[in-house]
Write a structure and sequence with these properties.
The chain is of the alpha+beta class. Among the domains are: about 180 residues, no CATH class; about 80 residues, no CATH class. Helix content is about 35%, strand content about 20%. The strands form three sheets. A nine-stranded mixed sheet has the order 7-6-2-8-9-13-12-11-10, sandwiched between helices. Helix 1 runs parallel beside helix 14, helix 5 crosses helix 12 and helix 6 packs parallel to helix 12. The longest helix is centred in the C-terminal third of the chain and has 25 residues.
């Protein structure tokens, strides 16, 4: 069949989900507080700081975190109406305004992002009892073959940045982040970052927090912060000069052994160790695995010993502590959603502070899309194949943001008209009514 191509007069949009994003932003104070910031280079801006930030958040929600991408939306009435912009800023305006901020917007964005999640998120699910997880981890961004400020060799063996991220709850709401040069060690400044993270996390939830950190952050400074902030912790230890063979002897002496299958023996146990500067002895939980045979039955010529040890403030049994820490690996998926789904792997500016601001605006976009996705799951009207507890950001973008509609203006009212065969219409309408201001 050969189609004829014509251009009609209807105002169509392929990204109706920006109305959901705009509805949530309208109920936050991000724009209002950014408008109050005085930048010496822009004392009386024609386009306010809040409008510039909102436009950038809208672009990131579409997976287009690039300044030049705004040009395609400058004459788009839906982009303007859904995000309440007047007018849509140009690419040079977007770039120059974010360049001139130089960190002045950062704390406002972090606080208001946490507040809007605390007020509007459907739920923040605990990981164990009444404990809400705070997962903190470094995840490098590959910016190879660029000359951007701060790009350097990372532990992943490529040139880029090494930002640190903090997520709250089983849903993975992003509560804090910090852009760092790629060559920085993961523990550099982490105790300060951890203290700020717990402050922002309390704007999201008043629950008791469980901080989970990997072996790159095995430091007494982090334990002291958790104790001072009255948060529980599980921190994987860096074995440093301790050998697996030494731990196998300790495990055989004071651990409890189980054999889940032939050729695999696992010892679980605990010790209490005194450390300088901390009054009470710290609890150390260990998990030592001896393998003499692979799962497929292949015998090993030399037995393999695997050791995992953790500092923890929890009083639960060792198996529970190990299980809770291993759930920390879910945060790798959250990193992936930020870097690939939202397109924030390669940051758009050559200036370090501007890239950090873009990443912070990306945090707002990520949380908005996460809230939309979680709200869509509260009732069984979403046309998905199986029951899930969390929707990936990419799925939210494909199903709810990139949903086509027709924009109609009549009798001083704006209407979105969806197609006759739109399977997501019921869910889209319910989510919009949940977040739209009354």
């Amino acid at each position: 069949m050969r189609f004829q191509i014509v251009q009609g007069n209807e105002q169509l949009s392929s990204h109706s989900g920006l109305a959901l994003v705009g509805a949530i932003l309208h109920r936050s104070r991000i724009r209002e507080r950014l408008d109050m910031v005085m930048l010496p280079e822009h004392p009386f801006p024609d386009i306010s700081h809040g409008e510039v930030a909102t436009a950038m958040i809208g672009l990131i929600c579409l997976g287009k975190p690039d300044f030049d991408a705004i040009e395609a939306f400058r004459d788009d009435p839906f982009f303007l109406q859904s995000l309440d912009l007047d007018p849509v800023p140009s690419s040079p305006t977007l770039r120059q305004r974010l360049d001139s901020a130089r960190g002045a917007f950062n704390d406002i964005i972090l606080k208001e992002s946490a507040r809007v999640v605390g007020r509007l998120a459907p739920a923040i699910t605990p990981c164990h009892g009444n404990l809400v997880a705070v997962d903190i981890d470094v995840s490098p961004l590959d910016n190879s073959k660029t000359k951007k400020e701060g790009v350097s060799w990372t532990y992943k063996k490529f040139d880029g940045y090494a930002p640190i991220f903090a997520y709250v709850g089983e849903e993975g709401y992003l509560t804090n982040l910090e852009l760092r040069p790629g060559s920085d060690h993961s523990q550099k400044g982490t105790e300060v970052f951890l203290r700020r993270t717990l402050r922002y996390a309390r704007l999201m939830s008043q629950a008791t927090f469980l901080v989970r950190l990997d072996s790159g952050n095995d430091s007494l400074d982090n334990i002291k912060v958790c104790q001072q902030e009255k948060a529980h912790y599980i921190i994987k230890r860096n074995l440093r000069w301790e050998t697996p063979e030494e731990w196998l002897e300790i495990a055989r002496e004071c651990g409890q052994m189980e054999e889940p299958r032939p050729g695999k023996q696992v010892w679980l146990g605990e010790q209490y160790i005194k450390r300088p500067g901390i009054k009470e002895p710290l609890r150390l939980v260990f998990c030592v695995t001896l393998r003499t045979m692979e799962a497929d039955g292949q015998a090993l010529l030399i037995p393999r010993v695997e050791v995992e040890t953790y500092w923890t403030s929890l009083s639960d049994d060792a198996a529970t502590v190990v299980r809770l820490y291993r759930a920390h690996g879910t945060s790798e998926q959250f990193h992936s959603e930020l870097k690939t789904d939202l397109g924030l792997e390669r940051l758009p500016s050559g200036k370090f502070q501007t890239n950090e601001l873009v990443l912070l605006l990306g945090m707002v976009a990520y949380n908005l899309l996460r809230m939309i996705g979680q709200e869509s799951l509260r009732e069984a009207d979403a046309p998905i194949r199986k029951q899930v507890s969390r929707r990936r950001v990419r799925s939210v973008m494909q199903d709810l943001v990139y949903l086509a509609c027709r924009l109609v203006r009549h009798a001083r009212r704006w209407t979105l008209s969806f197609g006759r065969h739109c399977p997501w219409l019921t869910t889209w309408r319910r989510v919009y009514l949940r977040f739209a201001p009354t």
